[in-house]
Amino acid sequence: MTQSSALIHVMDRAARKAGRALVRDFGEVELLQVSKKGAADFVSAADLRAEQTLKEELARARPDFIFEGEETGVGAGSGKTRWLVDPLDGTTNFLHGIPHFAISIAVVEDGKITAGLVYSPLLDEVYSAASGEGAFVGRRRLRVSARSALKESLIATGIPYLGRGDHKHYLSTLECVMGKVAGIRRFGSAALDLAYVAAGRFDGFWEFGLKPWDVAAGIILVREAGGFVTDARGGEDMLGTGDIVAGNGAIHQELRTLLSPLGMPAAA
Ligand code: 2AM
Ligand code: CA
Question: Hey, which end of the chain has fewer CB within 10 Å, N or C?
């Protein structure tokens, strides 16, 4: 077993364990006859439990890696390698009983993403990638789409909402893209949006103001599937800026050309 396939095995096992509990909890959310607040508290607890499971499982396998998760922040340690973990990406979907959410785990070494895994526990689909070794769903190799015409392309995005993001700037980007493409989708999980770009289902994706754990695994999936990912300026600092433009080579370039004259969103 290569070093990276051993790492993917570790991520896979941890994600499946946390995913089993999320599936049970998702079944409960659908049945919950409680106030909105009650459901939100229940989902926060499920989210935190999933992160704790991931933290324990990943630490057991690689005690020298630093753990950084959405819920519990950065753990102790001084190693160069860290796990970057989102235990429940698509939280709003989960809370509303919509079956579209995922666990996202990435390995970051000296600031470089070297492996990643996105797991959809309801579909039992594992998307995984390691540097130089390709991207896979299960054992099937992933490849970004070959569509090069914007007018035939299906593009995913994330729309800011109450209290988040620069709405005016976002609307200018949407206005610019919507008239030139075959369709736009807003599914609510950046990790799965990127996995779908890697799988050739979406031809491109853009969103602003994301956190590193939302996108780190998805970035390596897209790149290892032959696609391109940059921040809104065309640079490489997606984890720092939280802005992301992804796609196959042609569509990434088209999106960059459309979006770049619009400038950057104001800080949220
Ligand atoms: P979440 O489901 O883990 O919250 C949807 O537009 C994407 O944005 C999801 O990946 C979602 O992750 C993420 N997201 C939601 N709120 C966010 C916030 N305050 N900052 C950064 N990302 C956020
Ligand atoms: Ca997230």
Answer: N
Cα–Cα distance, 5 to 177 (Å, whole number): 38
Q: What is the token pair recorded at 188?
A: 């609510």
> Does residue 10 line the site of ligand 1, with CB under 6 A?
no
> Exposure of 132 by Cβ count < 10 A (0-12 exposed, 13-18 middle, 19+ buried)?
exposed
What value, to the nearest 5°, has the Cα angle with vertex 113 and ends 110 and 115?
A: 125
Work out the average pLDDT over 228-241.
Answer: 94
- Residue closest via CA to ligand 1's atom 12 equals 89
Structural domains for the chain: 3-141 (3.30.540.10), 150-262 (3.40.190.80)
Place of tokens 């890696």: 65
Sorted by sequence, the CB contacts under 8 Å of residue 48 that are 6+ apart come out as 71, 72, 87
pLDDT digits (tens, 9 = 90+) for 123-146: 999 999 999 999 999 999 999 999
* Cβ–ligand 1 contact at 86 (below 6 Å): yes
